[in-house]
């Protein structure tokens, strides 16, 4: 079985400050990890993924995430937050050999960046 | 790159009426396709997935069904809607192990009254 936890329902940061959205996972074997962003009444947009290789992954819009195997975490980060980053963020995981590529998504974290 | 279309964008239906939501994918072939439901703007619940034409797997027992009549077409249906079927329905496509990423359509907002 695979699972994802996003321990914070809400993250508030001031514009220009660094932001972190937390994600921990549980999976058998090597994980594939993903971050998505969702704006109101829109579909999910892919931000970045970790499959293998460098633990620090860079993605769209200046976001990055660090894979930490020992802590089973994949936290999303950005050095300087923008008001336009305010949205709902989802972490997802799947094992490398999951049937049909099914991913398990976290419950989401609402990021609010205040001017 | 692939593009995922969903329609309609919004739908208001009475309880007991039928439902048909359509998802089509452009720019790729033989994708894995998925239907999710998102309630109250939070987590995603996987409803159905398909690895090929006519191949449908259901993740949860429910009032809905899915079909895949063509390689890049995925349909979500119901014979009689329930109030609890209200939600935001998302279609996603995954195009093989080399990309190994699910991409999502814009979603359909369904309100059952």
Structure description:
The complex is a heterodimer of chains A (115) and B (113). By secondary structure, chain A is an all-beta fold. Chain A has no helices and twelve strands. In chain A, the strands form three sheets. In chain A, strands 2, 5, 6, 10, 11 and 12 form a six-stranded mixed beta sheet that branches. Chain A has a four-stranded antiparallel beta sheet with strand order 3-9-8-7, with no helix packed on it. The N and C termini of chain A lie far apart (41 Å). Chain B has strands at residues 3-7, 10-13, 19-26, 32-38, 44-52, 55-58, 65-70, 73-78, 87-94, 102-104, 108-112. Chain B is globular and about 40 Å long. The chains are: A mainly beta (115), B mainly beta (113).
Q: What structural category do the secondary elements of chain B indicate?
A: mainly beta
Radius of gyration of chain A: 14 Å
- Whole-angstrom Rg of chain B: 13 Å
Low-confidence stretches of chain B: none
Main pleated-sheet profile of chain B? 7 strands, mixed
Q: Count of DSSP E strands of chain B?
A: 11
Helix count, DSSP H or I runs of 4 or more residues of chain A: 0
The secondary-structure element order of chain B is: EEEEEEEEEEE
Helical fraction of chain B: under 10%
Q: Care to count the β-strands of chain A?
A: 12
| Elements of chain A, N to C (H/E) | EEEEEEEEEEEE
Helix vs. strand class of chain A: mainly beta
The average pLDDT of chain A is 94
Q: End-to-end distance of chain A, in Å?
A: 41 Å
Structural shape of chain A? globular
- What share of the residues of chain A lie within helices? under 10%
Number of helices of chain B: 0
Low-confidence stretches of chain A: none
Shape descriptor of chain B reads: globular
Largest sheet composition of chain A: 6 strands, mixed
**Strand share of the residues of chain A?**
over 45%
């Amino acid at each position: 079985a695979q699972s994802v936890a996003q321990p914070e329902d809400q993250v508030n940061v001031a514009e220009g400050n660094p932001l972190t959205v937390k994600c921990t996972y549980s999976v058998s074997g090597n994980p594939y990890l993903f971050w998505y962003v969702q704006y109101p009444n829109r579909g999910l947009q892919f931000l970045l993924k970790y499959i293998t290789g460098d633990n620090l992954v860079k993605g769209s819009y200046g976001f990055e995430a660090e894979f930490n195997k020992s802590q089973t975490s994949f936290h999303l980060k950005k050095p300087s937050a923008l008001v336009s980053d305010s949205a709902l963020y989802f972490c997802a995981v799947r094992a490398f050999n999951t049937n049909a590529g099914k991913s398990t998504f976290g419950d989401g974290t609402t990021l609010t960046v205040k001017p | 790159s692939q593009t995922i279309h969903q329609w309609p964008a919004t739908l208001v239906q009475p309880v007991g009426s039928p439902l048909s939501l359509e998802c089509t994918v452009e720019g790729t072939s033989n994708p894995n396709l998925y239907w999710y439901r998102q309630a109250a703007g939070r987590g995603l619940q996987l409803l159905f997935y398909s690895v090929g034409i006519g191949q449908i797997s259901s993740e949860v027992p429910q009032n809905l069904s899915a079909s895949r009549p063509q390689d890049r077409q995925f349909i979500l249906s119901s014979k009689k809607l329930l109030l609890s079927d209200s939600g935001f329905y998302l279609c996603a496509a995954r195009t093989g192990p080399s990309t190994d990423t699910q991409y999502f359509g814009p979603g359909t907002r369904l309100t059952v009254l």
